[in-house]
Amino acid sequence: MSFESGSISFRAFYVPKGLPEDVVSKFAKNALPPVDAIGRDGAAGWVTGRHMLDRNITDDTARMAGYLRLCLVTAEKKVPDALLKAECKMEELAVMQAEGLSFIKRADRIRIRKDVMARLQPTMPPTLNGISMVHDANRNMLYATATSDSKCDKFTLEFNRASGSEAVPVDVATAAKMRKDISVSNFGPGSFSPNVKDVDAVSDVGQDFLTWLWFYSEAKGGTIEIQGKSCAVAIGGPITLLHEAEGAHVAVLKDGNPMMSSEIKPAMLSGKKLSKAKVTIARGEEMWETTFDAKRFTFGSLKMPKGDEKLDAVSAFQQRMVSLDTFMEIFLQFHDKFLAERSDAEAWGKVKGDIVQWILAKY
Question: What does pTM read for this prediction?
């Protein structure tokens, strides 16, 4: 499972009311059906974090180092495209030969395809797809590999139904409300270009945040202090600049050193804002590196500081989760600093002007 080793692509969730004491038994009641019981319509259910067929959900199997570790598995019986095409072609040729036809009508091809699918599908082994999750009871924070919108919707629906609790995706709005009791709905659109009026600017607080973070990292030193330790942030490429107005206008810069590209200045002056970029956070000798999607508030391929290789599996997992929690808290504290400026009309007006001048001077 991705939370145990390697890089992690994930989305964070708040669980505001926590989980009930009998949450493990609740998930056990919603376990994935046995493989031999999965029919043509497929199935979805929960397994432990040990592997995708571990339906034995108990306190011993579902918890690791104090964290609840589960996986939502979707099982579908799919006929491989190559096999389906070959079988259909065989049936079509047989019909053509038996009836002396030179071609098969479209309606007959559709019927043959349905018949072949009905014959083959029950014999297919299920294809398994999983969304791994880890819940930290101390912070009521949950991490899941549900980075796409469709997976997020699927995960929250199944999690809420099984647990009886609510998982709320962490984004600019929920983080502002949960941490600072600020409603971002009160924020109007803001432009970082002298050529675009505020009312015509991209109204996406996530993009405002990432663009501000880029500016803060380069023009303002990019550091904050947390519990007496200095934490620094840096923004790197590849980057995506986006302006949604009568359709999405996107600029993706990858080659060379995209942060120094001559394309940035005209893109920003046309109203584009940073939508996706590589974010590096450092605290002393510790370093985290990820690709942050500002619109979805998701983290791709997070690389964490190297852990102690001598630890046993449980201790190593705990070390990784502590490191993940640390990264998330540092990142959200940078978001807190952004909110402090964004929620102050006078301060934000100055920041917008400073970003414009920084872009003009830098590029």
Answer: 0.87
